[in-house]
Amino acid sequence: MDWHDQQDLARYRRRKRKQRDYQQGYRERLKEARTPERDDIAAELMRVYLNVVAVDHQKVRDLSRALFGGLEQRGYDRAACVEQVRGMARRVQARMARQSNKEGRDRPPED
Question: Count of domains in the chain?
Fold first, then answer.
C-alpha cells in the first residue's frame, strides 16, 4: 500500500494497533474465563462428527445431510463436500486403527 499522507499512515497504524490490542485482550479474557470461541466449538464438533462417521456412518445420516446442505447453501459443490468429509473420515479411521493396534501391542499377553 502506498501512503501519500503521513497523517493517514499514522491514523491507520493507530487503528490497527488498537484493534490488535483489543483482540488480544478479548482472547485473554476468553482464555481466563475458559470460554471457547466459535472456531473452537466448530473444531470440536467436527472432531466428534468425524469420529462417529469413522465408526458408524448411519448414526449421523441426518447430521450429514444438514452439514452438506448448509455447505451447499454457502455455494460449495455438494459432491466435493461429500468427498472432502469422506477423506477426512478415512484419515480418522486410519488413526483410530493405528491407536487400537498400538494399544493391543502395549497390553501384556493374557494367560
Answer: 2
